Amino acid sequence: MKTDVANRYIWFKQEILNVNDAKINVLAPTSQFGLNVFEGIPCYWNETQQQLYAFRLADHYKRLAKSAKLLQLDCKYTKEDFEKALVDVVRANEYTENVSVRQTLFVDGFGSWGSDGPVEMFVAPIPRGNTSAEYNKQGLNCCVASWRRISDNTLSPRIKCGANYINSRMGQREALRNGYDTCIFLNEAGKVAEGPGSCLFLVKDGRLITPQLTDSVLESITRDTVIKLAEELGIEVQERSVDRTELYASDEAFLCGSAMEITPILSIDRYKYEYSEESLTSKLLAKYRSVVSGRDSKYQGWLTPIYK
Ligand SMILES: Cc1ncc(COP(=O)(O)O)c(C=O)c1O
């Protein structure tokens, strides 16, 4: 039976439960220290095919396993377990719309921030419209955060762990407090890094420019998708360090991520950008939507069908 969002099913420690019945001990390291690693996995409904597709699932699981390895979590679940749990719980909810799935490995039990286990998992799908406000806007007014992005020498942005999002929070709260939708972080060297939950692209003279992966950014799957789609569309892409003034001097800009998809930036620190149906950002967004929803046969290899 279809569920309402407040009573949806969640996969939790090998069981499928009502989300309200999934309980974690307050003393677990995940509760106390944000000791968890996770993925946000987008699934797209194709009405014609009556099919829901998980996008780049294998790449999400590769990154999840890498995050767990870097934090030395002793995880008993395999990539096959990850996928089966996701498929089972999305099917249990009978979703026939776009959903976003939070898949988290967390340190349970009574240990400390230094514990390597016991590692448990939950998988929680949610209809896309119910995710955070900044992920559901048509265009974004941004500021450059006064806080710097975490760095590989302190808390690596390469590891997608809960604790990293406290840095994201500082920038996001500052942006909201000052009347913006979201922020862009500079890294410790003062070069442009990323958004609090997304990667950044600029468009200048018909070329795409994005900060390189060693400039304090997550190894984003959407960033990689955008680069590959741009190549197919014959658009040159530069991955390199980006100066702050390049932000203001570019023609277009957008943020991208599994939750954000490709969302145009309307302004940064009140410097305005072009955005229209003809802009490069619009072309990339149209291409992205057709790929993720299974309307582009060339990219079937990136899609995992949820229903039989
Ligand atoms: C800090 C940060 N950067 C970038 C991204 C985009 O990553 P992906 O495209 O893999 O969702 C995210 C989203 O998870 C993020 O949290």
User: Roughly how many Å apart are the termini?
Assistant: 17 Å
Named once each, the bound ligands are: pyridoxal-5'-phosphate
Q: How many discrete structural domains?
A: 2
- Give the uncertain stretches in residue-range form: none
CATH architecture grouping of the largest domain: Alpha-Beta Barrel
Order of helices and strands: EEHEEHHEEEHEEEHEHEEEHE
**Based on DSSP secondary structure assignment, what is the total number of beta strands?**
15
Q: Based on CA inertia axes, which overall geometry fits?
A: globular
Radius of gyration: 19 Å
CATH topology of the largest domain: D-amino Acid Aminotransferase, Chain A, domain 2
Kindly state the percentage of residues in helix: 25-40%
As a percent range, the share of strand residues is 25-35%
Report the biggest beta sheet as strand number plus sense, adding barrel if it closes: 8 strands, mixed
- Within CATH, the superfamily of the largest domain carries the name D-amino Acid Aminotransferase, subunit A, domain 2
> What's the pLDDT, averaged over the residues?
96
Level-1 CATH class name of the largest domain? Alpha Beta
User: What is the count of helical runs?
Assistant: 7
Q: What structural category do the secondary elements indicate?
A: alpha+beta
Describe the structure in your own words.
The structure is a single chain. The chain is an alpha+beta fold and 308 residues long. The chain has 2 domains: 5-127, Aminotransferase class 4, branched-chain amino acid transferase, N-terminal domain (D-amino Acid Aminotransferase, Chain A, domain 1); 134-292, Alpha-Beta Barrel (D-amino Acid Aminotransferase, Chain A, domain 2), CATH 3.20.10.10. Helices cover 25% and strands 29% of the residues. The chain has helices at 29-33, 57-70, 79-93, 165-177, 221-232, 244-249, 280-292; strands at 9-12, 15-18, 36-46, 51-55, 99-107, 119-127, 140-148, 182-186, 199-204, 207-210, 237-239, 252-257, 261-268, 271-272, 303-305. Strands 7, 8, 9, 10, 11, 12, 13 and 14 form an 8-stranded mixed sheet that branches. It has a 7-stranded antiparallel sheet with strand order 2-1-6-5-3-4-15. Strand 12 (252-257) and strand 13 form a beta hairpin. The longest helix has 15 residues, at 79-93. The chain is globular, with a radius of gyration of 19 Å. The structure holds pyridoxal-5'-phosphate.
